[in-house]
Amino acid sequence: MRRAFRNFRKFAKALLPSLLGRRRFVRLSWWQAPRIVFLDKERRRVFSVRSRHYVDSLTADEIFTQHNYDLRRLRRYDDIMERYQSLITQGIVPLIIDCGANAGYATRYLATEFPGAHIIGVEPDAGNIALARLNTERYSNVSLLQSAIGAAQGFVSVTNNEAGSNAFRVERSKGADIPVVTINQLVAENKVIAGQKVALFLVKIDIEGFEEDLFSSNLQWLKSLPLLVIELHDWMLPGQARSQNFLKAVSKYPRDFVYIHDNVYSIISPDG
Questions:
Q1: Looking at the structure, do residues 135 and 101 belong to the same domain, yes or no?
Q2: Is the dihedral of CA 149, 225, 64, 235 positive or negative?
Q3: Is pLDDT at 224 greater than 90 in this prediction?
Q4: Residue 53 belongs to domain spanning
């Protein structure tokens, strides 16, 4: 009850400034579940997303209220959009892979921002993937996989089932039942969609430290990738150097490295 009252008070205090300010998304409902309602001031429409609990509510706020993946903050935003439009003009479908799709909020956001793209959401947890399906069911350009993403195929298990739904970590395990897919595999399996050629355009990664595995090998996909967005987790797993493989991988190529809040944006050079 106290948390609910605090959330309502916080919501009421922020509502009017959000409506009048420059922020694009305004949260219109203070409750956590079963739906959270937002106003998209840019598109002049109201929409809702499904939510189960407080953790989902926080995640939805990260994506929409805080606009976590707002590419317009990047000075190279125009370059990125030119690449996207160039693919569309050539009749090529831009492929976006959302690694760590969670409840589908970022997947849905990317599907809205890039309607000509095909978005593959990859999420290991069954409960999260079920909610992600509900949150993206109206989007024909979205497909979802209950899998982990890694450097090589295999299997993983969740190592912290007691964690919140936005913080599940996985590790490789022979006796596990969650399959691992690779980015190379997803690209190879989606060379053509609805009769159109496909090209990898954007990869978003938030996999709670498993980026150490993902960037350990088989990184052919990275060389010509226009945009990579990743949250690194050394802050969460100190002393384990979980970012080392990522840093080695991106340093091989001429790419910009931009850090905004929780995310690193790795952008291919203009000549790449």
A1: yes
A2: positive
A3: yes
A4: 2-65
